[in-house]
Design a protein that fits this description.
This protein is mainly beta. It has 3 helices and 9 strands. The structure holds zinc ion. Zinc ion (ZN) is lined by residues 156, 158, 160.
């Protein structure tokens, strides 16, 4: 399989180098530390606004992509707070504002992350907004690889990161 002339399309596995900054210019994440990000295009492995902007790009191409909150981690919801009784936590748990805590959603059984917003006498106020909710994201992206996805990857809905080495 020769990926040289491929462009980013559904059912391709894409590798990007990127940096991610917020409105104030602060870079909060980049591929410098962890290496390029690899994912199956069209499978919602990455945020929708970023995925949509990559279609048609080829290896070596670079782009600045601005993603508004509705196509990233959602708008900030001031009502997405919950008061959790202190006894829901271990007695010796050291609870501090800003700390991330994982909960299991009783209905879906899925893990949800929340952040301690405030410690009150009658419980702990947890903010369930994603920490990037309400943020516009500024990506600087360079495509460094595009290859056809393997049948198993399409079936699983995600890239097998080392599949191209096998
Ligand atoms: Zn898999």
């Amino acid at each position: 399989m020769n990926g040289k002339n491929l462009v980013v399309a559904d059912n391709t596995v894409v590798r990007i180098e990127y940096s991610l900054a917020l409105n104030d210019g602060d870079v909060i994440d980049s591929s410098v530390e962890d290496g390029p990000l690899e994912f199956l295009q069209g499978a919602n492995e990455i945020i929708p606004g970023l995925e949509a902007a990559l279609y048609g790009m080829s290896v070596g191409e670079q782009k600045n992509i601005v993603v508004t909150p509705d196509l990233a981690y959602g708008e900030y919801n001031p009502e997405d707070y919950q008061l959790v009784p202190r006894d829901a936590f271990e007695d010796d748990a050291e609870l501090e504002p800003g700390m991330a805590i994982e909960f299991v959603d009783e209905e879906s059984g899925e893990a949800v992350e929340g952040f301690i917003s405030e410690i009150q006498p009658d419980g702990i106020v947890i903010d369930f907004n994603h920490w990037l909710a309400g943020e516009t994201l500024y990506f600087d992206v360079k495509v460094v690889g595009v290859r056809p996805a393997l049948p198993e990857e399409i079936e699983h809905g995600h890239a097998h990161v080392d599949a191209h080495d096998a």
